[in-house]
Amino acid sequence: MHELYDLIIIGSGPAGLSAAIYGSRARLKTLVIEKTQIGGQILNTYEIENYPGAQESLTGKKLIKRMIEQAKSFGAEIIKDEILEVEIIKDIKLLKGQKKEYKCKTLIIATGTTPKKLGIKGEEEFISKGVSYCAICDGDFFTDLEVFVVGGGDSAVKEAIFLTKFARKVTIVYRNSNLKCTKVLEEKSRKNEKISFLFNTVIEEIKGDGILESIFFKNTITNEVNEYICKEEDGTMGLFIFIGNKPKTGLFKNKLDMDSIGYIITDENMKTSIDGVFAAGDCRSKSVRQVITASSDGAIAAIMADEFIGNK
């Protein structure tokens, strides 16, 4: 006999943990299931400046630690398992995990997103051998070396600034002529002596003998291609890719309404196309994806889940 939960949350980022706090505080029997690391991608965020009440040097790890402690203090359970299959049409939802099966009255999907790849020749070959999608994870490996950051949005510029703590030189590579980040971040990056810019440029291919040694840059205006080879004394260089994310919603394909990209469609109350199933955070279709909006989504979804159970 499987234990029946009032609320199960798939995903443990800010959306999932906020939902856990609100759900468990409402006395719902609440379970959070996480496939990989508790906390999600925000763990890789070095500094959070725009979260209300954030103190100086608030990192993703610190914020998540507080959220976990708070959720557990209200009675939420947090476990690691990978959900492989879901049956969500009936009143009681069934989740089939790698370790066991779970049943719940309501479900909140807070699976977040995963970084997009460039899709260029050599990218897969050099992952963790020069290519990275996480500055806080791998920045230290490139101390006193040269690194290139692909992307022009907030994430890319923020990570480029962070990488100047380690790298000798950081070059932001962007396909357009102007950055699309906030003015505050642009000003910070332009004032940083370690940061330079390579606009109207894309990367065609990367090469190396076991580690990244060569990058082929293409000018989007002239179509001219130039190969950049790392300095002989360095032996390698870094390529950090921050060109956006894609939703981790494959588990719910053809089960829930989604947009053309794969983000789950909800109403303003986080309700999906199936009764008792909600989505929160970056995995749902919306215009703004920030820590604060993810947390807000999670809170709303849990309140609506409580209301849904109360109306049964």
From TrEMBL:
Q: Which GO terms describe its biological process?
A: removal of superoxide radicals
**What Pfam families does the record tag this protein with?**
Pyr_redox_2
Q: So what does this thing catalyse?
A: [thioredoxin]-dithiol + NADP(+) = [thioredoxin]-disulfide + NADPH + H(+)
Instruction: Report the domain of life of the source organism.
Output: Bacteria
Query: Which Gene Ontology MF annotations are present?
Result: thioredoxin-disulfide reductase (NADPH) activity
Please state the Enzyme Commission number of this protein: 1.8.1.9
Q: What class of enzyme is it?
A: oxidoreductase
Keywords, A to Z, come to:
Disulfide bond, FAD, Flavoprotein, NADP, Oxidoreductase, Redox-active center
This protein's cofactor list reads: FAD
Domain FAD/NAD(P)-binding residue range list: 5-298
What does the UniProt cofactor note say?
Binds 1 FAD per subunit.
Entry GO CC: cytoplasm
**Would you identify the family this protein belongs to, as annotated?**
Belongs to the class-II pyridine nucleotide-disulfide oxidoreductase family.
The record describes its quaternary structure and partners as: Homodimer.
The protein in question is named: Thioredoxin reductase
Q: Name the species this protein comes from.
A: Romboutsia maritimum
Lineage of producing organism: Bacteria, Bacillati, Bacillota, Clostridia, Peptostreptococcales
